[in-house]
Amino acid sequence: MKRTLNQIVNEITDLISIMRTYINNEGGDLEFVNFIDGVVTIRISGKCLNCSMRNITFDEGVKTALISEIKEVNDVKFIK
After folding, report:
1. 38/18 Cα distance (integer angstroms)
2. Strand order through the sheet with 28-36
3. Each residue's pLDDT expressed in tens, for the chain with a length of 80 residues
4. How far, CA to CA in Å, does 50 sit from each of 14, 31, 45?
5. How far apart are the first and last CA of the chain?
6. pTM of this structure
7. Of 4, 28, 50, 72, which is most buried, counting CB atoms within 10 Å of its CB?
8. Distance CA 54, CA 45 (A)
9. Quick one: which of 5, 73, 69, 2 has its CA closest to 41?
C-alpha cells in the first residue's frame, strides 16, 4: 500500500526530532523545510554553521539515516 505524503513527512520529522536532540547538545540545530520529489531539505543553524565536522555529521549521519530509514527519501539537502 502506497503511503501518503503526510505519512512520509511525519516519519521524516519524527526521525529529525530524534537527531535534533544530539545536534542540540552540541549547540546546533536542524529544521525540516520540505520534502519534494524524494528530496528532503533541512535548515541547519547554531554551531553547525561553523563546525569543522559538519559535513561528516550531516552526510554520514543525518543524510544516511534518512535515506536508509525512509524508502521514499532519495537525497537530503542542507541549507543555512
Report:
1. 21
2. 28-36, 39-46, 75-79
3. 789 999 999 999 999 999 999 999 999 999 999 999 999 999 999 998 888 888 888 888 999 999 999 999 999 999 98
4. 26, 17, 9
5. 36
6. 0.92
7. 28
8. 11
9. 73
H-helix or E-strand spanning residue 69: helix 64-69
The number of beta carbons lying within 10 Å of the beta carbon of residue 40 is 27
Residue 8 and residue 35 in contact, taking contact as beta carbons nearer than 8 Å: yes
Q: In the prediction, which pLDDT does 13 show?
A: 98
Three-state DSSP class for residue 1: coil
Instruction: Supply 28's cell numbers.
Output: 546546533
- Residue 12: closest CA among 36, 30, 35: 35
CB 59 within 8 Å of CB 53: no
Q: What's the pLDDT at 14?
A: 97
DSSP tag of 73: -
